[in-house]
Structure formats: C-alpha cells, structure tokens
Amino acid sequence: MTQKELAWQSKLILLLVLPVTGADVVLQSQSWAAQDAAAAVLTLGLSALLGLVTWKLRAATPGAAWAGALITANLMFSTATVPRQPWHTALIPVLAVSLLAFGATRVGRGQKERLGTAEQRKGRLAAQIAANLGAAALVLNDATQTWLKGTHWAAFGGPVPTAAALAALAEAAADTVSSEIGQVLGGRPRMVTTLRAAEPGADGAVSLAGTVAGIIAAAIVSGLGMAALRGDAELFAVSCSGAVFGLFFDSLLGATFERAGWLNNDAVNFLSTISAAGFAGVVMVLTK
Predict the structure, then answer these.
(1) Which of 43, 123, 192, 258 could form a disulfide with 254 if both were Cys (CB 3.0 to 4.6 A apart)?
(2) Rounded to the nearest 5 degrees, what angle is found at the Cα of 68, between the Cα atoms of 63 and 69?
(3) Is residue 26 classed exposed, middle or buried when 0-12, 13-18 and 19+ CB atoms within 10 A define those classes?
C-alpha cells in the first residue's frame, strides 16, 4: 500500500492520543487550579508558548503545534509535585526532544533535499507529533494510572511509569536524530535485517554514525529527564536502554512492515516509542 492509503493509521494515532490527552489536561487543570491556580496557569502558559515558538520556527504546522502543546501540558501535569516547580517536570525532556529534532532536521538540509528525504518546510504534522510524544503521555495519563492501581502492577507504581515515559521520549529523540544525521554523515547505510547496502533514507537502513548520534540523543534526553524528575542512575540507565531498544525496533519495523506497505511512518514511530516504554517498564519491574 502507498503512504496515502495508510493515512488511516495516522488518523487512528490522533484519535487515540489527543482525546485522552485533552480530557486529562482539562481534569488536571481543574484539580491544580483548586490547590494552586498560579501553577495551573504557568503550566498551560509554558505549554502554549512552546507550541507557539515551534510554529513560528516552522518546525510544526499550526495543528501540530497545538497537539504538541496539549501533550506537553499533560506530561507536565502528570509529573508535577507539590509545591509546584515547572522545571522539575517532563517539560525539560520534552524541550530536549524538540530542540534535538529541530537541530537534526536542519543539518545538511540541502543534501537531504537532493535525496528527497528532507522534512517538509512547513514542519511536522499533528500525527507526527502524536506518534512521537503520545506514548509517553498515555503512560502517565491519569486514566492509565487509575487502571494500574486496580491490577497487580500497582505495587510498581511511581518509578515504573516514569521510566517508561522517559524512555518513550528518549526514543523519539534518538529515532529522529539517528535518521537525520545518518543521511548526512553516515555514508552508505545498511539494512538492519540483511546488512546489505541501501540508499540513504531507506526504511530500515542504519549507519554507524546515525546510530551513535541516536544513542547520544537518547542519553541527553534521559540525563536531563533524570535531573528534572529528581531521578537516580537507575532511571537514567533504564530509560536510555529502553530508548536504544526502541531505536533498533524502529529500524526492524521499517525494514519489514513499513517496506512491505503494511505500516506507515507514523505507525512505526508510535509502536517504537511504545516498545521503548514497554522495555523500560519491564526492566524496572524485574529489578525491583
């Protein structure tokens, strides 16, 4: 199938992420406003500002900027503590993901345009934002946490969802940086499944330079997230390793299901962030 025929997958991701995220933001805004109105306003304001700046820099379309602001607000509310300190929330790793993606897409843009692999100049679409950030928001969503409390996973609350969400964010950064840098500095990439040479930008193709760049990006997001969320070395190690797992899982999906025309790029990205979150969550549970 063509990417156009698979557009329903992007719409499905939007329908899965945005309504749940939006509802949670409304509920959490009301809850925080009741105990700390200034904190609620600051969270919504900073999220909206990030969306506005992203749009003005043409890193995202207006719809995508709105989606990013909504998800950012959700992540900030979900990781907030009392007393409210916005710099000790998921805002910091989200900013890191955004800045790393923005910088990586602009490295060697002329070369990417000649290859036909450059990101469109109007910026990312809402589905791309949801595919990259949505998994983290769903993991930390109040509805998810309420459901977990009624299962045997409740005993692993707190560090487990935090590590899973941070791994998903780190994987999103790693995937973008790996792909963008690999196309410019990686030389001739190879398919992850067969190790045969492939064209730059081909689905499932990896290069040493791109992979190293992706791992560094994952470490940056995990490290900043660890500091912002007052985590420890375990949070860093688990979230970073989850991101690296997701990075290779992304390449595997690209080399198989995406090349076969069964998944589009948004679906691959979304599933890869979920795999990173799942890997980190399982490791946290097993080490408890």
Answers:
(1) 258
(2) 100
(3) exposed
For residue range 235-251, what is the model confidence (pLDDT) as tens digits?
A: 999 999 999 999 999 99
pLDDT in tens, 65-103: 999 999 999 999 999 887 667 788 999 999 999 999 999
Length of the chain: 288
How many C-beta neighbours within 10 Å does residue 78 have?
24
Question: How far, in whole angstroms, is CA 140 from its chain's centroid?
Answer: 13
- Expressed in percent and rounded to 5, the helix, strand and coil fractions of the chain are 75, 0, 25
Please tell me whether the overall predicted TM-score, pTM, comes out greater than 0.70 for this model.
yes
Rounded CA-CA distance 230/146 in Å is 23
Nearest to 276 by CA among 183, 214, 228, 193: 214
Q: Give the whole-angstrom CA distance, residue 15 versus residue 223.
A: 31
Q: What single string gives the DSSP state of each residue in 177-189?
A: HHHHHHHHHS-S-
Q: How far, in Å, CA of 278 to CA of 191, rounded?
A: 25
> Measured between alpha carbons, how far is 185 from 195 in angstroms, rounded to an integer?
18
